[in-house]
Structure formats: C-alpha cells, structure tokens
Specification:
Layout lengths: L6 E6 L6 H14 L4 E5 L6 H6 L9 E5 L2 E5 L2 H7 L3 E4 L15 H10 L3 E7 L7 H8 L9 H5 L3 E4 L4 H9 L6 H9 L4 H29 L11 E6 L5 H13 L5 E9 L8 H13 L3 E7 L2 H11 L4 E5 L5 H7 L3 H8 L4 E5 L19 H24 L6 H19 L1 H19 L11 H49 L4 H13 L3 E6 L2 E7 L7 E7 L2 E6 L8 H47 L1 H17 L5 H33 L7 E3 L2 H11 L6 E5 L6 E3 L1 H18 L6 E8 L2 E7 L32 H11 L3 E6 L5 E8 L9
Parallel strand pairs: 1-6, 1-7, 2-5, 5-6, 8-9, 8-11, 9-10, 11-12, 18-20
Antiparallel strand pairs: 3-4, 13-14, 13-16, 15-16, 17-19, 20-21, 21-23, 22-23
Helix pairs in contact: 12-14, 15-16, 15-17, 16-17, 16-18, 17-18, 18-19, 19-20, 20-22, 20-25, 21-22, 23-24, 24-25
Subcellular location: Cell membrane; Membrane
Main location: membrane
Catalytic activity: ATP + protein L-histidine = ADP + protein N-phospho-L-histidine
Length: 831
C-alpha cells in the first residue's frame, strides 16, 4: 500500500487574492527543482496573468461531461491516477463536480489522490470552510453551497494564508484583473465591500491562528512537554462565584493588556458532587463582564478543585494564574489545612500565580443559622419521632435489660438521635439527645431511678450525644438547602427554556409567559392587565378575587390569583416579571415601528416632490411669462422666426409646468390614501425597455447586461420607470459623445440591483450627498433639461419602495447610480 500523499492548501479570504497564481508559481519552482509535477486542473477565470503561469507545467487533459445539453470540463481523476505524478496541482478544493462524475466534490477527488500517494497543492477560500459557513453568510449576506468539511481540511499537512489588503484587492478588481468588466461594479458594491473583505480577512487569519494553536498543543502532547511556552501572555482567572470575581477579572485584564496579543480566560471549577458551586446570578454577571473585557469564559467539573484548575491552565498554555485570597479565617485554616490557593501555588510549576486580596478575604468564622432550610412540617415531625420513639425504645430495651446490655442501650439511643436529626434537623435532635441522656442515666445506669452523674465519662456521653446530633443536623440542613436551591434553579431554567421555545416556535410571547407563570407557581389563574383591559390570561380568577398585583410597567400589572407566594419563590417571580417587561417593551416598539413605516414612506415621497416643486415650478413659470411678455411687447413688428421661438419656449415651459402639477396631484392622492404605491413583483427589464423608448435611446446609446435571471423586485413599475427615465437622462447628458451608457442588473442576497453607469466627469466624493439636494446641479445652469423629477424625487420614490438609491464612482471614471430593491429570490453567488 503506497504511503499517503501530503496535502498543502493555500487559503484566501476572498476570490482574487492570488491563490491560484501562488499555486502555479510554486508549481514552476518545484518543476525547476526536478519534481514530477502536473496540473490536475486550474481555473483561470479568464485572467491572462494566471493563464500565462500555466505555460511550461505539464497538464493532464480535462474530461468533458455532458449535462442538459451543456458540455462541462472537469479534472480527469483517473488520468491523474494513471499518470501517478509526485505532485498534482488541483485548484478550487470546494468545487462541485458535474453530475455523472465519480465524486460529487473535488475535495473527494483530492482524497483519492492522497490515498494513492500523490501530494496535492490546492486552493480554498475561507467562505467554503463548513464550520464558517453561517458566519460568512452573516458577513456577506450570501449563503455558500460549496463547502469542505473541517475534518478533511484539518488533516492537511500545510495550510498557508495568501493575504492581500482589502483595498489592494478592490484596486485589483477595479483594474479588471479579477472579473470581466460587466461584473466589476456589482462585485465592488456587494461581496467586495471594504467592510466585508476586512471581516473575511480577519476570519481567515483567526482560523489559521487557531490551527497553529492546535498544532502546537498536539506537538507538546506528542512530545510529553508540560512546561509553558510563552508564545503570548495567557491569563487565567479562577472564579468561585463569590463577590470578589469582578476584582479578579479586572486585575487579570490589566495583566493581559500589558503584552501585545494578551488573552484573558476565566474559568469556574465545579466539584463533581455539585455541592461546591457559586451563586448562579453572580456567575452570570461575571460572565457578561468577561465578554466586555474581550475574554472567554469556561466551566470545568473536577474532583479536586486545585488540580483541575492547574490542569486547565496548562491545557490552554497559560502563563499567569489569578486567584482570590482565601475567605477563611486563620482559625478555620488551622483546622482545615492549606486552602486552594496554597495548593495551586505548590502545583503550578512555571505558571505565575497572583493571589489578589479582596473585601471578603479572611472573614471570621460564623455558625450557620439554626433555623436551617428544613420546613416547619419536618421539624414538627422530628419532635414527634423523639417523643414517641424515646418511650417506645425505652420499653423495648427494658425487656432485655441486663448488666451487660449497657453498650447496646447506649448505641440504640444514639441511633434514635441520628434518626431524629435526619427527620427534623437540629432542634428535635438536641431535644432527643438530652432526653436520651436523661433516660439512660435514670433507668439504665446505677444507681437507678436517680439523675446523678458520678463519673466524668457519663457527662462525656451526653456531650457526644449533643455533638452527634448537631453534626448530623448540619449535614441534613445543608443537603436540604442545596436540594431546594437546585430545584429552584432547575425551575428557573426550565421556565426560561420553555418561554424561549414558545417564542421560537412562533407562539405569542406574552401569552406564553402568563401560561408558564401559572404552571410554575401552580396558581388557579394569572392575568396581565393594562388598566381595566386584559392583555393575557391563563386559568380562571378566584371568586373572591383574592390576588396579588405586581407592577410590570407604569400602566401594566400582573395579577396572581391564589395563595401568597413563599419568599423562596420570589426570585423565580422576578425572572418572569423581567421577561414580561422586556417582551412588552419589544412589542410596543414593534407596533410603533409598524405604525410609523407607512407614514415615513409617505413623508419621503411628499418631501421629495414638494422640495422639487419649489424650484421647478418657478423656472417654467418664469420662462412662459417671459415668452408671453416678449410677444406682447413686440406686437405685430416681431419677425416670424422670433415669434416661433418665443411660442416654442412658452409651450415647452407650460408642458413642464403640467408635469409638475401632475406630480403634485400624485402626492396629494398619496397623502389622502387614494394613490398608493403598488409594490408588486416587477421584472426590471419590463421597466428599462419603456424608459429607453421614452428617451429614444438605441443600441448605440446604451449597452445592456441583464443578469438578474428570473428574480423580480417588489416595486411600483410606474414609479420605477419614472426614476429610470430621470437617471438615464442624466447619464446620457453627461456621457462623452460616442460613449454609450451601460445598464446592468444583478442580484445579491435578498436585493435586486439596477446600475446606470456613465463615463462622464463623475462627481467628487465630497459632493456625492449634495446631488440629492433639491435640484443641485453642481453649477450647471442649463435650462433646457432637468425639468423631470430630479434626483431628490427619484430617491424619495425608491425609498418609499423600501429601496435605496446610491451614487458610486465608476472604475476608470464616471458615475454609477445604483438602485437596490427588495427581491423575491436571489440566484447569484460569487465564484
């Protein structure tokens, strides 16, 4: 069986960073060193520089696959296996093979090459890594259907990042070195935004850094290296769930910040029995603080807390360990031995340990409260067991009393004390201990029927009775306390989980909260009231209307019908009321937004039209008045040519005035609710063609690249056509003679975009916002054009259709106006 080949992956943040070029460059170098190397497949994407790099490298001919009448070219896997080179260059690891190929994915082809002992050099973009698929979609808005499993990629012997600064990549794209000219504008505005590229670059570098970290851990484990390698400062802060945690975290953050790339790691160790745990609320607050300090939070279960803490610190290659000073006093420490801090210092080895003092350190020892956590019913039951069990046991022991039975008598009464302690806690146990001591002395110890202690060991026996009763009672009380806390925490978690599940399933969040409240507290009825109105109800209120009212907001209260809640249940109730308050606020904001949206859309249209009207109405009215005045002043002596010119001016101005009045009437109808924006599925081609016909623009004036497939925009086709007429008029006006306008369409995520591209003088960046001011023409005073809607009105119409109108620089000079509208379906994905 041949030795498995090695995989080398060139990882990039985005298309165009130079992965394929670098792969071919490495192939030429290896070929020059005498290696047997072939090109399995290289995707040049029409890039001349990349195609030139393939010259001189032996290549295996591609195989052709017919699919639905289209011929597709794929790597000939069998031919490469038969050729058996030392190294194969295989581009685009995540590529999906044509239907009918041996493997569905190209990475599966590479797996066969590796299994055959052939080394492979391949390329991959960060968006095609399976575990990062959802993260990349959040950044770019584009789902990736071609992915490579992390398990396969992590098996690569070498992974290298081919890096390029985001702005440098955009410059390369603008220069036509990545995509053909018709795709440049859409790419720059969508996938290749500067923010997108920066985030993808960071993601690639972080992923590789994590791989390096894992490789370092693997190497240290394989070579049995336990010592810390201080590649960078890693500070582990140990949290107990106590109030000192905030102090420790801030100290740890300051230590980490002293070195470049320092890392803050917080850890809480929970004992396996679950008894040594911190306050959940305090831990939640400290976890939030860790995130604010750019650290990470971990929770570990360990049998021995100091050992588990040190092992965790070593596992993350920590250089510093921050602990709080012990909260035990010196008296307690003298009896219980060295604490966690001392043990950690002894076992930490080369990890520096910081013991941080805090307000709770070294507090005096206090006894637990005698009332304990047991219920009143259990304490009463303990007294009953002591009162009935004592006489019953005395009667039983009296039947078998002898001189040698004193040991059995003592142990029997001691067992009774333990049983009473388990049932009722400390007070019944102390009562049983004293009663048992007196009974023993009165009935079973010479002289009988007297209560008199002749020997010291009899007194010691009574003291031991009391001590045993106290210790057992303390254990029982503590167990009851932890049980109650665990049940309460479980109830809180289950309630929150149930509420969250109800909301995620689409249930009414407020109703779900009210229902769960009634179920959690086992109440007959719960109502959420706003004044006299019932917002939500669950169950039925009691006939006598006995209830407790809890204020949620200024005008909202929660009514709990039934018995009063115990103090221990108030915390759970606080969780519910906080959730209710947040849900009510969210619902209020949502309703307000829904109410404002149509008003805002209407205001955008009205504002755009009325602002435009203030300028456009004045100019044609003045021109028409001047023409008529000229005709009147000249009288019959005016030449026919001059008379015709004045009449044409008046006619043109009055026509423009009629258009403006029509716009004003549209706004009036819109505000009155008579004219609405008809947002329907609209094919952009069906609005572009009429707009071109209206302006009499032909193939020599405009080039088209309609790449939106069968996607349709949610838009008003009439308003959209009017916007296109305005934008095309401006583009045609400013384009150099003989240079056509370029109109293109594309889809990106859930948007459909229309681009009107000219090669005119363009607009300075600082003036881009000014062009949307009413009739701002940057010094242009031509009165023969521009009497249409204007850019201010165009933007108003587009925004009313929930879209955007954005100006951008055209690569190579000029202005690109981008209309972005909601779309029904997207079908485009960058390759």
């Amino acid at each position: 069986m041949p030795k498995r080949g090695q995989l080398r992956v060139l990882l990039g943040a985005a298309p165009g960073v130079g992965k394929t070029f670098t792969m071919l460059e490495e192939g030429r170098r290896l070929l020059g060193n005498g290696k047997d190397i072939v090109v399995g497949i290289v995707e040049t994407h029409g890039r001349a520089a990349t195609a030139a790099m393939t010259a001189g490298i032996p290549a295996v001919p591609r195989t052709r696959v017919e699919h639905r009448g289209v011929t597709l070219e794929e790597m000939d896997l069998q031919a490469v296996l038969d050729r058996r080179p030392e190294i194969a260059l295989v581009d685009e690891l995540a590529h999906t093979n044509a239907p009918g190929s041996k493997n569905d994915k190209r990475w599966q082809d590479v797996e066969e090459l590796l299994a055959a002992g052939i080394d492979v050099v391949s390329t991959l973009n960060i968006q095609h890594i399976e575990s990062l698929n959802d993260v990349v979609e959040q950044i770019t808005g584009v789902p990736q259907r071609e992915t490579v499993p992390d398990s396969f990629l992590r098996g690569a012997e070498q992974i290298e990042v081919v890096d390029l600064a985001p702005q440098a990549l955009r410059d390369r794209l603008s220069g036509g070195f990545v995509y053909p000219a018709e795709r440049i504008d859409a790419a720059l505005s969508n996938y290749f935004r500067l923010g997108n590229l920066t985030a993808l670059r960071e993601l690639a570098l972080i992923w590789l850094a994590d791989e390096v970290d894992q490789a370092l851990k693997g190497y240290r484990k394989d070579h049995g290296i336990d010592s810390t390698w201080e590649a960078r400062e890693r500070v582990v802060v140990a949290l107990t769930g106590g109030p000192e945690g905030e102090t420790l975290l801030r100290r740890g953050a300051r230590i980490a910040a002293r070195s470049a790339g320092g890392e803050l790691i917080a850890v809480h160790i929970t004992s396996q029995d679950g008894l040594r745990t911190g306050n959940p609320a305090t831990l939640a607050e400290q976890r939030a603080l860790v995130e604010k300090l750019n650290g990470t939070y971990h929770q570990v279960i360990g049998e021995d807390i100091p050992t588990a803490l040190v092992e965790f610190a070593r596992s993350v290659n920590a250089t510093q360990l921050v602990l709080g000073a012990s909260r035990r006093g010196r008296v307690t420490a003298a009896f219980t031995g060295p604490g966690i801090g001392a043990t950690v210092v002894r076992e930490s080895g080369d990890i520096d340990v910081h013991m941080v003092n805090h307000a709770a350190a070294g507090k005096r020892f206090t006894l637990p409260p005698l009332t304990g956590a047991l219920t009143r019913k259990r304490r009463i039951l303990g007294f009953v067991v002591a009162l009935l069990g004592g006489p019953a046991l005395t009667a039983l022991l009296s039947l078998f009393r002898s001189e040698d039975s004193i040991t059995t008598d003592v142990l029997s009464y001691q067992l009774l004390v333990v049983i009473v302690a388990l049932v009722g806690g400390i007070w019944p146990a102390l009562f049983a201990a004293v009663l048992s001591g007196i009974t023993l002395d009165f009935l079973f110890i010479e002289p009988l029927y007297t209560i008199h202690i002749h020997q010291p060991h009899h007194l010691l026996s009574l003291v031991l009775y009391v001590l045993i009763a106290s210790l057992v009672s303390f254990v029982v009380d503590r167990a009851a306390r932890y049980t109650r806390a665990a049940r309460r925490s479980a109830a809180e978690s289950e309630l929150i989980q149930t509420i969250a599940g109800s909301v995620l399933r689409g249930d009414n969040a407020i109703q779900a909260l009210v229902d769960r409240t009634r179920e959690a507290f086992q109440l007959p009825g719960v109502r959420l009231m706003r004044g006299e109105d019932v917002l939500a109800r669950s169950g039925e209120p009691l006939p006598d209307n006995h209830h407790a009212s809890i204020r949620i907001t200024d005008d909202t209260t929660l009514e709990l019908h039934g018995p009063d809640l115990a103090a221990s249940e108030q915390r759970l109730l606080a969780v519910v009321t906080a959730q209710l308050a947040a849900t009510l606020e969210h619902e209020h904001l949502t309703q307000t937004a829904k109410q404002i949206e149509p008003i805002a859309a209407s205001d955008r249209v009205r504002g755009a039209l009325l602002s435009a009207l203030s300028h456009d109405l004045r100019r044609p009215l003045a021109a028409a008045s001047a023409a008529v005045g000229g005709l009147k002043a000249a009288g019959p002596d005016l030449a026919s040519a001059q008379k015709r010119e004045l009449l044409d001016t008046a006619e043109e101005s009055l026509a423009a005035l009629a258009t403006l009045v029509t716009d004003l009437l549209d706004v009036s109808r819109l505000q009155a609710g008579v004219l609405t924006i008809a947002e329907i599925p609209t094919d952009p081609a069906e609005t572009i063609a009429p707009a071109l016909d209206e302006l009499h623009l032909g193939p020599t004036d405009v080039t088209l690249a309609l790449n939106h497939g069968d996607a349709a925009a949610h838009a008003d086709p009439v308003l959209l056509q009017r916007v296109l007429v305005n934008l095309l008029t401006n583009a045609h006006r400013y384009s150099p003679a003989g240079t056509p306008i370029h109109v293109s369409t594309s889809t990106f995520a859930d948007r459909l975009e229309i681009r009107i591209i000219d090669r005119g003088p363009g607009i300075p960046p600082e003036k881009l916002d000014d062009i949307f001011l009413p009739f701002q023409r940057l010094g242009d005073t031509d009165n023969t054009t521009g009497l249409g809607l204007g850019l201010a009105l165009s933007r108003g119409f587009i925004e009313a259709m929930h879209g955007t109108l954005t100006p951008e620089d055209t690569p190579g000079g000029g202005l690109t106006m981008v209309i972005s509208l909601p779309t029904i379906r997207t079908s485009q994905e960058p390759s």
